[in-house]
């Protein structure tokens, strides 16, 4: 049987893109590598530790299939995990073509394209067959407006995981307005990297209007519980960003 051409993503998305997807346009994709590392202090450390947490949970040196939801951009989840564990294979899903194009370029650069099936679309487009040994959902949840959308994606991920499989969930986990000091420090980080006072204010306004994070770590735990995951184990924090591992209940 002929192998699929992994230089191009499978085009499984058939519904109109929501606003949470449309904002990841070519302009945002082009600046993603730089901007993400300013917005999240410890961006690389978060991804490296995520790979380490998965290896510690699954067992080092074992073959595994990983579902990477929201893989567009730098595909950093796959870059880190693929370097650590040569026996892991990946299914990368993202609804933004520009962001997925950037991920494809990085996977090709790191020699990981042959170990990765790439899908343009949503996790719901994949069969709910419980075939994955682990999953990551990094930098996605706070872009989904409302609790219903957050529950839906966590349910969709859970349906594709084996019992006991770990999920790495990372993203902003505080209502921004409830953490004025953290938000101010986030603005200062941009200033540290050369943003003017007006640019800082514009970025603060954009994040307040353009994302809807869970309101607390307790709310994250509740969302995970409703989707069938155990209590999360938090292992990384950077201002209002946090990363945790939770296992799907048997």
TrEMBL record:
GO MF, one annotated term: methyltransferase activity
Sequence segments annotated as region (Disordered): 1-29
Leader sequence residues: none
Highest rank taxon of the organism: Bacteria
Keyword Methyltransferase: yes
Keywords associated with the record: Methyltransferase, Transferase
Gene Ontology BP terms: methylation
One matching Pfam family: Methyltransf_12
Name the UniProt record assigns to this protein: tRNA (Cmo5U34)-methyltransferase
Species of the source: Bosea lathyri
